[in-house]
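Re-running the complex after MR caught last week's input typo. The corrected sequence lines follow. Everything else is unchanged.
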Amino acid sequence: MGAPRSNRGSSDDALICVVDNDQPVRSAVENLLESAGYTTIAFDSGEACLASPRRAEFAFAILDIELGGMHGFALQQPLTAGGTLLPLVLFSAYGDHAMARRAIDAGAIAFLRKPVDVDLLLAHISKALAAGARRT
Amino acid sequence: MMAAAHPPSRQAPTADDALTRVAWLERQHVAVLELFAAQAAVSLETARLYAELIEENEQRRAIEKALRASEATLLQAEKINHSGSFAWEINAAALRCSAEFCRLFDFDPAQSLIGASAVLERIHADDRERVRLHTRDCVAHRRPIRIDYRLAGDGTVRYLSSVAEPMGGDGEAGLYVGTAVDMSERRAAEDSLRAAQAELARVRRVTMAGQLTAAIVHQLSQPLMSIASHAGASLRWLERDPPRLDQLHRGLVEIAAQSQRAGSIMHGLQARARPSAPDIGNSGNHGAPDLSTG
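Corrected-run output:
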C-alpha cells in the first residue's frame, strides 16, 4: 500500500481491514485511512477477507453490511469471535435503529450510515486502538 | 241389409229338397252375421272415436302440465336472477307483470296488472323524469328500450336495469315486452372489486416507491461515501508538513469522478421514471442502478 506514516497518534503500524464490494468506496476509504497514517488491506467480499493469511494482523475492521455474497453481519461473527476481539464498525447505505442495535449487540463499536462522517470514523478507530494499546 | 231384401217365407221350409233347406238356412245365417258385422263395425268406430278422445285429453293434460312446469321454472328463474318480466300495453297504460317484477317494485306479487304511472312512481325521484322521457322517446320511434335506474325503497336504494322490445307487427306498436333486473348485488360486488383494485394499485405504487427509494439510496450512497472519504483524506494530506500535493491531487480527481458517477445514476433513474421509458431492462445505460441488486 505504501501508506505514508502519520505524525499524530501512536498506531502507525496498525493494519486496518476494509471490506466493501464497491471498488471506488474501497479505494476512497483506504485513501482516508492512509491519510490518517494507517496501513490498510481491502477485500471485495467477506469470503476473501476470512481467507486472508494476514487476518491475525488486523487491528481494526470496517465492514459494509450489503456485500455481494456473505452478508456483513455474517462476516462480523467470525471476526469478533475466537477471543481475538477485533474492534470493528459496520456501515450501510440503509440502516435503522434495529440494524444499529443488531450491529452493536453482535459486538461492533459503531454502526455508521453511508456517507459516513469521516472524522467520527477516524475517532472510533483511534479510540479503539488506544484502548487496545492500553490493554496490551 | 240382405236379410231385409229376402224376408223368410212360411212356405219355403215345406220344400222336401234338403239341399234347398240348407241353402235357405245358410242364407239366414249370412243375414244374421252381416247384421252382427255391421253392428260390430259401428261399435269399433265408436271405440276408436272414444280412444282418440281419451288420447286427445291426455295430450291436452300433458301440454297443460308442461306449460305449468315451464311457467313455474320461469318464475323460479326470475326469482333466482332477481329479474322480473312484463308486457307493457301502451294504450292501456298498464303492465302485465310477473310475480318477481311485483316483488322488485314492491307490489303485491298476486297483482298481475299494474298501472304504468304506479310503476313510474316507484322509481327514484332523481331518475323518474329521465326514465319517463327515454321510454316515451323509444316508444314513439318503436325502438328497443335499454335503461338503468334506481328504485327508491325504504332507506335502501336498489339499482335496476331494464330492456324491452316492441312486439308484433307494425300495427301492434302498443305492446312492449321486457325485463327488469336487480343489479344491486352485482353493483356492490363491482364496487368492492374496484375498491380492491384501487387498494392494490396503491400498495403497488407504495412498494414501487419503496423499491425505487432503496435503489436510489443504495446506488447514490456509494459515490457519496467515496467523495466524503476522499475529501477527508485530501484535507489530511494538505495538512501534512510538507503538504502531500500529489495525494491531494489524486483525491480531488477521484472526487470529480465520483460526482460524475452520482450524476449518471441520477440521470439513469430519471430516464427510468419517465412513463414512456423503453425496455429499461436492457437499456445498458451508464450507471443506472438495477433495482434487483441488494
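None of the earlier attempt is carried over here. Helices of chain A lie at 23-35, 46-50, 72-80, 97-105, 118-135. Chain A touches chain B at residues 4, 7, 22, 24-25, 27-29, 31-32, 34-36, 66, 91, 93-94, 114-119, 122 (CB under 8 Å).
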